[in-house]
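Question (not urgent): is this output format expected?
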Amino acid sequence: MIRTFISLGSNIEREYHIHAAMTELKKLGVHFEVSRIFEAEPVGFSGPNFYNCVVALETSLSLSVLQQTLKQLELDYGRAPDAKKNQSRTLDLDILLYGDVQRHASPTLPRADIYKFAFVLWPMAEIAPELKIPGDDRTVAQLWNEFGTEQALWPVDVVFEESHESL
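Got this back:
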């Protein structure tokens, strides 16, 4: 089993898509953990605010199968096959870490978003503050404490209707 971290984002029917993604991701492994949900302004374009969170789980799926599964989930939940960066989306699922794997081919690991976006790093710091990023001597908590860019981001209290579960 490999411990993986996956970022989730949506700015179209946000609650529905984040909840659907969590439900689907729980099927891919064990020891599922999820950060709080954060609301963030879009970076690089104008549009509705995003809901973002990070999940951690242990999976037996290979990296390539996990990547294919996440891309298929995006398509299944309405993401256009030719979707561009910096535009609104129903669902965005990105592998941030896959065990200690470091690679430059797609998917690049660790994913650079860890270092660039508060909506990735703050949720990671919630669920794995002492984790060291492969190839980096700093913990996630240290990275978050050193994070310096101004990105509008705040936790939200989201209640999923059918389970009455607050995240």
